[in-house]
């Protein structure tokens, strides 16, 4: 089996991780493309003595950490002041190492040992970084969350997780039309949306309806993530795979809010 065939099944999930790190489908997919270009340019540098998925993420982390890689939509500027502004812009949007450790373990399912290998720290440091990220989440801004989910048990589970994290739930919609009505009635600061809804309508269409009215961060929930992580069309920036773990939902919500500036500060 060729290296490309070995890596292909893991690319959708690398896109998920990269999008979560950057808070953007466009920027996230650019980092993935840069990773693939680096592998094609120097295939002998790909680590062959480890699992292909681990090697792929390790190559990605090298691109992510490289100060020489500029995403395509980076603001252009000349002179020393312009270069400093570019550097500050990059640092401002950089996901901290603690959040990288949390996303790698909670969302991508790597063991602490594998996460340590990927971000080049000791395993004990990964555990400390994850604890640091979780502590940051406790201090994070509070959001008003709209849940779009037609399975009652799953909706209740999500609602419980959301409330336990200190967020408010504005409502639970089971159809496209109901989702838009609830969003307009009580504007949310975050939307959690299933893909397939009760009346055979689409959660994607429901979200499009909402985004046509106002901007809001969205996390999609699906049993078939690879269908929404192709990199070939407008796709979700944040995505949770069914069946999900509580820690995965927590990590996704915190990272979506990490890039959003419209949420209400948590009470002291």
From TrEMBL:
Statement: the UniProt record of this protein carries the keyword Zinc-finger: no
Annotated Response regulatory domain residues: 144-257
CDD domains noted in UniProt: REC_PhyR
Keyword annotations: Phosphoprotein
GO biological process, one term: phosphorelay signal transduction system
InterPro entries: Bact_response_regulator, CheY-like_superfamily, PhyR_sigma2, PhyR_sigma4, Sig_resp-reg_PhyR, Sig_transdc_resp-reg_receiver
Pfam family, one: PhyR_sigma-like
4-aspartylphosphate PTM positions: 194
Protein name: CheY chemotaxis protein or a CheY-like REC (Receiver) domain
Protein species of origin: Sphingomonas gellani
